[in-house]
């Protein structure tokens, strides 16, 4: 028995719903980051916190902060919260007003590499 769907709107809706459902269960997707992407901060406490949608492997997680001149300015102290296995944290010293980029990279327990960048600014 063949099922034939003649309504293209229904087909498109089904495909979009299927894609969203699959992405909702994806392991390791970044769900929240502090500071937020494109944040303009008057004060920064030097704490970076990133949460992922699933378990992150202990294999070389990375959070790197660079300033507008491309110089690395974080404390080289990235840590994975072993209890939750989805929370990555790092710190920076007191940073002067400038534009900064955070580069993150983790490997999920399934071996998927998840990486990206986030930007923030510290203002006067």
How many helices does DSSP assign?
Answer: 1
Strand order of the largest sheet: 1-3-6-5
Proportion of beta-strand residues = 35-45%
Q: What coarse outline follows from CA principal-axis ratios?
A: globular
Which structural class do you get from the secondary structure elements? Answer: mainly beta
What's the gyration radius in Å?
19 Å
The number of strands is 8
Average predicted local confidence, pLDDT: 85
Distance between the termini: 69 Å
- Report low-confidence residues grouped into runs of 5 or more: 16-24
**Main beta sheet:** 4 strands, antiparallel
Word description of this protein:
It is a single chain. The protein is mostly beta strands and 124 residues long. The protein is 14% helix and 37% strand. The protein is built from one helix and eight strands; from the N terminus they run αββββββββ. The protein has one helix at residues 8-24; strands at residues 30-34, 39-41, 47-52, 62-66, 79-80, 87-91, 98-107, 113-122. The protein has a four-stranded antiparallel sheet, with no helix packed on it. A hairpin with a 5-residue loop joins strand 7 (98-107) and strand 8 (113-122). The longest helix is centred in the N-terminal third of the chain and has 17 residues, at 8-24. The protein starts with 7 loop residues before the first helix and ends with a strand. 18% of the residues are buried.
